[in-house]
Design brief:
The protein is of the alpha/beta class. The chain contains 10 helices and 12 strands. It binds NADP nicotinamide-adenine-dinucleotide phosphate.
Length: 287
């Protein structure tokens, strides 16, 4: 952990790896537009360094974002926790106030706004199929449940993790139907795809060149109308398949934008300059 490299920063994104993150370009454009003269950086923090990082952050930062794989590991270090993020077990935004760390998650807000922007789709009444039940999906599923979706379908390689999320959702939202499957159970998946009105790709598959698809894409052939949102902000194999078959499709860039804008609003109390942040993110992704 190279704290000297970020000693001029008041905000950071931490993760491992973190070098690929576009958050600094986007957040620094926002901070500049607000005239705050503060700097947002990125810092690689390994799992056994979180305690040391947190001790330093309490003294030196105004806030930080957390990315993979620390969204859950940060929890024991937080002095105050947003109840929805606590239910989801995933935090991506921390405010540092008077030495205290106050945590919440803006991933669900970001995804909700990105889905509305991409597909003009209000969440209430949607039947949402999640591929992947990691931290981002957990945070989002609880947000979506609170926004009145009609049905959640959770598909994950490790079934125990999907079962565990389903159990927590059923306790918090007893009226909401929640179903679980593994990607290899194609009969169950076919049924879920048949009834879904929105598919969210929330696995890490597609981050690296050569990654396989998270499911057999032929199962989508009967649903050219199904909107596909991939949380990854690069052209994944699933997105390419969806586009080639005329399905409404969007990548995760505006999720990143909206979750980051909400973090900035939480930290500064000011209306985030979304247009400037969006333009900076576009430039960074084209570079
Ligand atoms: P995470 O907690 O590490 O979860 C990873 C998910 O991917 C789990 O469901 C995991 O399944 C699945 N997975 C990983 N490798 C797999 C493989 N080889 N085969 C099948 N499934 C696999 O990560 P996260 O924070 O939820 O992030 C998930 C995705 O969302 C990432 O691609 C990330 O880039 C994206 N994201 C985007 C934004 C944005 O602003 N656009 C924000 C947050 C996250 P198991 O449970 O079986 O391991």
């Amino acid at each position: 952990m190279d704290l000297d490299s970020v000693c001029n920063c008041r905000y950071l994104v931490i993760g491992d790896p973190v070098a690929h993150s576009r958050s600094p370009e986007m957040q620094n454009a926002g901070l500049e537009a607000l005239g705050l003269g503060r700097v947002y950086g990125k810092l690689r923090v390994m799992a056994d360094e979180i305690g040391d990082f947190v001790a330093w952050a309490r003294l030196h930062l105004d806030g930080f974002n957390i990315t993979v794989p620390h969204k859950e590991r940060i929890i024991p270090f937080l002095d105050e926790r947003d109840p929805v993020a606590e239910l989801a077990g995933s935090f991506n935004t921390v405010s540092c106030r008077g030495g205290k760390l106050i945590g919440c998650s803006t991933d669900g807000y970001g995804l909700e706004n990105a889905v509305q922007e991409a597909f003009q789709l209000p969440l209430a009444g949607q039947r949402v199929l999640f591929l992947g039940t990691g931290g981002a999906a957990c945070a989002t599923a609880f947000r979506f449940a609170s926004r009145g979706v009609a049905h959640l379908m959770l598909v994950n390689r490790t079934k125990a993790k999907a079962d565990e999320l389903a159990a927590r959702l059923r306790v918090a939202y007893p009226e909401l139907p929640v179903d679980v499957a593994v990607p290899g159970d194609e009969a169950a998946l076919r049924e879920m795809i048949g009834s879904a009105t929105l598919l969210i790709q929330a696995t890490s598959l597609g981050l690296k060149d050569g990654d396989p698809l998270p499911m057999n894409p032929d199962l989508l052939l009967d649903r050219p109308d199904l909107p596909v949102f991939d949380t990854i902000y690069r052209p994944t194999p699933l997105l390419r398949f969806a586009e080639a078959h005329g399905m409404p499709a969007a990548d995760g860039r505006w999720m990143l934008l909206h979750q980051g804008a909400r973090s900035m609003e939480i930290w500064t109390g000011k209306q985030p300059p979304v247009a400037q942040m969006r333009a900076a993110l576009e430039r960074s992704l084209q570079a």
